[in-house]
Specification:
By secondary structure, this protein is of the alpha/beta class. It has a 6-stranded mixed β-sheet. A two-stranded antiparallel sheet has the order 5-6. A two-stranded antiparallel sheet has the order 9-10. Strand 3 and strand 4 form a beta hairpin. Helix 3 crosses helix 7, helix 5 packs parallel to helix 7 and helix 14 packs across helix 16.
Length: 564
């Protein structure tokens, strides 16, 4: 059959007519429009049709385009791009139908949702849009079936999947907005939709042509995720007899990982293969570095599935083993507090190769955490971090020694000196550094890999940043330079499990301990508990405390020049 691509501008009365039946292929992503995109669409339509004049005099509204695979021998056209728009428009027609005040109007509107069968011709009713198999029956019963919306909106969405929640929320939004306006406005909106709203329908006779178009197009208001484009490439190109199996496998991984996590996983896999900074769009780079080495089936079975499993373990710090599991998970939790995830590809790669070797994992995660925090404390820029981790990835891939002097996993003497110097400085002024570092230090003091799940965490200066002139603080620290030296350093910082109390911040030491640190409901962090044992907060106390805290970090991260 000759390959063809055809594009036509069509009114919605043609789109939602017997000229078309639409089906969302199983390999497509789930319905994902939120009320943000739906509200934008409705606001645009209401603004475009505003006024009291005849609807024929209102300017038309262009809704973008949809891409279809239209095989002349098949009743349904496969929607390659445009399902978000078509699904939302179907919801809108269904809401307008249910809100119509007469049975005649409801029946007229139902024609845009359902193609009516003919008993004499032997045909049955068919919904004009069929969603993916996972959501199809739900959408049929709750949205497209006449008379179903009111009871649907009374349901609890808590148990719904993400795509079903989006369907529920957008239906709820449109119902709430349109049920409060006069029927004349709803009628005007309906006429405007049907007669003066247009889509460009791009029909391709074959799959490859449709995917080429799909790869360069975005849905209205919601950019295609790079993984959506790659899914079309990988799953869409598979033989039809295995496509559903791999679609299910792909979507299960995406649901388990979460949409954002799934996209991140692909970026990390690309880094593992390329060992370099991303310099083009992810789909293009992924095709070049990953898919050039594996076909679609091999990629899903041998790359995506095992890496996604490791990704879940690492990001959730959920490693299980007969030994060393808590040690490994503790280091993974510390890593997870950093302000970047450049460390993830090396740990994912190492885990995949050594998952059953708990001793190797314990040693590696300890040293990777040391390196990652070392780069973090020095505020090494992203380009240099990526180069460093790329070198670590190369050693992992080649099974080279990671623990010898000169290995990229290890810190050099100069780096250790620079880290120690930074730790001894005004840490509080490093906004991204201070909280992870204090939590890391607190875990060392607790000597148990302490973890905290408090929703609110704050950092308090014991010596206030602006002590009152007549306070005890000015007696203990009369010199402004001395106060400046100590105010923002580790020794003077503690953790609280609540918001700062602006009034309590400047209390004298005894009252601050009583009102601020010992108040009921405040977690007793190891770092904070030490302060409660002091009777005085003076420079000698701070000097001793600074030496002790720095000593803990230096020992943990082996910051002496003779220890690598």
């Amino acid at each position: 059959m000759k390959q063809t691509i055809e594009a036509k501008e069509q009114e919605l009365k043609r789109i939602f007519s017997d000229d078309y039946l639409f089906e969302i292929p199983a390999y497509q992503r789930p319905y994902a429009w939120t009320t943000e995109q739906t509200s934008e669409l409705l606001d645009d339509l209401m603004s475009a049709m505003a006024g009291d004049g005849p609807i024929d005099e209102v300017s038309p509204y262009f809704m973008g385009s949809i891409v279809l695979i239209k095989d002349p021998t098949q009743a349904f056209a496969q929607v390659v791009d445009g399902q978000q728009r078509l699904t939302t428009l179907t919801i809108l027609f269904s809401v307008l139908r249910e809100l119509a005040e007469t049975e005649s109007a409801r029946n007229s509107l139902d024609k845009y949702v359902c193609e009516k069968g003919d008993e004499y011709a032997g045909s049955e009713d068919r919904y004009r849009l069929s969603l993916r198999a996972r959501d199809r029956n739900f959408f049929n019963a709750q949205i497209q079936k006449m008379g179903s919306l009111k009871s649907f909106l009374e349901q609890d969405k808590a148990s719904f999947s993400d795509s079903k929640k989006r369907i529920f929320e957008n239906t709820q939004y449109l119902w709430g907005k349109l049920s409060t306006v006069d029927q004349k406005i709803r009628d005007r909106l309906t006429k405007y939709l049907i007669q003066h709203c247009f889509l460009v329908v791009v029909s391709a006779s074959d799959q490859s042509s449709a995917y080429r178009i799909f790869s360069v197009m975005n849905d209205r208001g919601l950019d295609l995720s790079p993984t959506d484009i790659l899914k079309a490439d990988i799953i869409g190109a598979m033989p039809e007899d295995i496509r559903q199996k791999y679609t299910d496998q792909w979507e299960e991984i995406e649901e388990e990982t979460g949409r954002d996590g799934f996209r991140d996983l692909f970026a990390h896999i690309r880094m593992i293969y390329a060992k370099d900074k991303l310099r083009s769009n992810l789909p293009e780079a992924f095709r070049k570095t990953v898919l050039s080495k594996d076909n679609g089936r091999e990629f899903v079975d041998n790359v995506l599935s095992p890496y996604s499993e490791v990704f879940g373990i690492v990001t959730q710090a959920a490693y299980e083993s007969i030994a060393d599991a808590e040690s490994v998970n503790s280091y993974l939790r510390h890593l997870g507090r950093l302000d970047n995830f450049d460390w993830l590809p090396p740990v994912i790669s190492f885990f995949k190769k050594h998952r059953n070797d708990h001793q190797s994992l314990a040693i590696f995660t300890k040293d990777l955490e040391r390196l990652a925090y070392g780069l973090f404390v020095q505020r090494v820029n992203i380009n240099d971090r990526i180069k460093r981790y790329a070198s670590v990835l190369s050693r992992i891939e080649k099974a080279e020694d990671l623990y010898s002097s000169g290995s990229p996993l290890q810190l050099s003497g100069e780096e250790m000196d620079a880290i120690a110097e930074a730790l001894n400085g005004p840490i509080y002024l490093q906004t991204r550094l201070r909280m992870p570092l204090l939590l890391r230090l607190d875990a060392l003091l607790a000597d148990s890999g302490a973890t905290y799940e408090h929703k609110l965490l704050s950092i308090e200066h014991v010596l206030p940043q602006s002590p009152a002139e007549n306070s005890m603080w000015m007696t203990w620290f009369p010199d402004a330079d001395t106060r400046d030296l100590w105010t923002h350093r580790l020794a003077n910082l503690v953790l609280l499990s609540r918001r700062k109390n602006s009034q309590a911040q400047n209390f004298d030491f005894d009252r601050k301990k009583e009102e601020y640190f010992q108040k009921k409901g405040v977690a007793t962090f190891a770092l904070t508990s030490q302060v409660l044992t002091k009777n005085k907060w003076s420079e000698p106390v701070l000097i001793q405390r600074q030496e002790e805290l720095l000593g803990l970090l230096k020992a943990e991260w082996r910051l002496g020049n003779n220890t690598e």
